[in-house]
């Protein structure tokens, strides 16, 4: 069994034979379901260098010994922040400690608040026979159809719906049409006023294309 736990905003913990933490923005996150010191991980995946995604990655890695996976340029940046094991990669597939990982494009920006660092990405994770797609921050784009063709079927897609910086509900519903996931979990909404969105509106727009599972921070989905 693989469990996908929503930690708030865009942070998720995937638990199976390995614990995979994605975009661990917990300190300063008004939605955070846990504190950084309460999380265990084997791998930490970072989608881009914005503070609400890179978050507490370094601190958690130092404490747990987790390996951080990120875009090559961002990995180099992270390695300068502390004594942690960082694996830099670029768009494409790899396997790390028995976990299949595909780093895929995302349409967004990436910086530490001052300098542009690397390119944004999403991740397709294959763990214990399940496939999870975390879109990172992105707008919808037709290549999402290739993700479904090459790496599907996708068991669950984790998609931003907050608008302003990412897709809104309408665009995310189109992404579902392209990705063809069995289930979809909305994320990256209602953390702050600019990204206010109604997940029920998203669910209505998706219709019967996929099962929409609306998780509150701290809740989990079992695959």
From TrEMBL:
Signal peptide bounds: none
Keywords, alphabetical: Hydrolase
Keyword Hydrolase included in the entry's annotation: yes
GO molecular function: hydrolase activity
Metallo-beta-lactamase domain: residues covered: 8-188
Origin superkingdom: Archaea
SUPFAM superfamilies recorded: Metallo-hydrolase/oxidoreductase
Pfam families: Lactamase_B_3 (PF13483)
InterPro entries the record matches: Metallo-B-lactamas, RibonucZ/Hydroxyglut_hydro, UPF0173, UPF0173_UPF0282_UlaG_hydrolase
Family matches, as PANTHER family: UPF0173 METAL-DEPENDENT HYDROLASE MJ1163, UPF0173 METAL-DEPENDENT HYDROLASE MJ1163-RELATED
Protein family per UniProt: Belongs to the UPF0173 family.
Protein name per the record: UPF0173 metal-dependent hydrolase TGAM_0425
Organism per entry: Thermococcus gammatolerans (strain DSM 15229 / JCM 11827 / EJ3)
Organism phylogeny: Archaea, Methanobacteriati, Methanobacteriota, Thermococci, Thermococcales
């Amino acid at each position: 069994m693989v469990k996908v736990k929503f930690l708030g905003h865009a942070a998720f913990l995937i638990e199976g034979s390995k614990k995979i933490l994605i975009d661990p923005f917990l300190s300063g996150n008004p939605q955070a379901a846990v504190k950084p010191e309460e999380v265990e991980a084997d791998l930490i995946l970072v989608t881009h260098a914005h503070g609400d995604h890179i978050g507490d990655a370094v601190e958690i890695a130092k404490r747990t010994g987790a390996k951080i996976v990120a875009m090559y340029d961002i990995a180099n940046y992270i390695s300068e922040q502390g004594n942690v094991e960082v694996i830099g990669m670029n768009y494409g597939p790899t396997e790390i400690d028995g976990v299949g990982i595909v780093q895929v494009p995302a349409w967004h920006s990436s910086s530490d608040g001052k300098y542009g660092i690397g390119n944004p990405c999403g991740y397709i994770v294959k763990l214990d026979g399940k496939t999870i797609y975390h879109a990172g921050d992105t707008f919808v784009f037709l290549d999402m159809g290739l993700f479904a063709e090459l790496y599907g079927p996708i068991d669950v897609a984790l998609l931003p719906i907050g608008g302003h910086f990412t897709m809104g509900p309408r665009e995310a519903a189109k992404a579902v049409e392209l990705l063809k996931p069995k289930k979809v979990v909305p994320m990256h909404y209602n953390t702050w006023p600019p990204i206010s969105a109604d997940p029920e509106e998203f669910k209505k727009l998706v219709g019967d294309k996929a099962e929409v599972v609306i998780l509150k921070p701290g809740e989990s989905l079992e695959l």
